[in-house]
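Tokens for ABC transporter permease. Go.
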Amino acid sequence: MNAVARFFDSDLWWSFTRNPITVISAIVAAICIGGAVLAPWIAPHNPFDLASLQLLDAFKPPAWSPEGDPNYLLGTDDQGRDVLSAIMYGARVSLLVGFLAVVMSVVLGVSAGLAAGYLGGTVDAVLMRIADIKLTFPTILIALLIDGVTRAALPRDVHDQIALYVVIFAIGFSNWPSFARTVRGSTMVERNKEYVQAARVIGLGRGRIMVTHVLPNVLGPVLVIATLQLGFAILAEATLSFLGVGVPPTQPSLGTLIRIGNDFLFSGEWWITIFPGIALIVLVLSVNLLGDWLRDALNPKLR
């Protein structure tokens, strides 16, 4: 309770409540994430239950249209699936991929940056050159390369089973250099401070000093980058799924729903792709706005 009280009395909470855009973004993000997490319980339909689908319900427009059905608020797709329910279930996959990819990037990037900044010398040179080489390749290109290699190396049914994990690995592996470079710079500053020198004097090992002393003091920028990278990871997953190399059709994400609806966009069934696209924009924009606020709130020069 004391920790909660201190949080509500902190400068961070004061900055949050004084920024209307941030408050609105937080509410929108909470609604999007809550709707995705609770989709099995609050979604009007289960769009992936084949026994409940009716092809006669296909291509129904939104409920407010003259030909709309009140049971399908945002209409249905080519298979009779409720678009609203499909968006809620698809957001679950997009958020899962984005979150796990960011976690992977944080683990790889923080580990590399901490080792490079504290140890220096050859370790620093090798790790940073690897990061520089990685930065010359676009995220989508690396993800396509990894997906292509796994498709060629594994049978199709096996690849379909692990496709979700392949996408997570591809995106996570592509974004770690930004964390590594940030943590390296902060670590190079922290390693020369008195508390680190004191830890060396009392005989603590390098590993323990890095993990227990330096790491907690370099995590502030990591939190900001992770928040911003979450939006980028969701967009990367949506792009890969739109290109047909992301998650399998049995686990459609927002990108998959947009790709499916794009086939019917010019035939008049605009709602199949427009509403998933709006959901993707709202989700990423709200997360990015929260990341921008967090970056400014944690920057002492802007206080």
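The CA atoms of residues 147 and 245 lie 7 Å apart.
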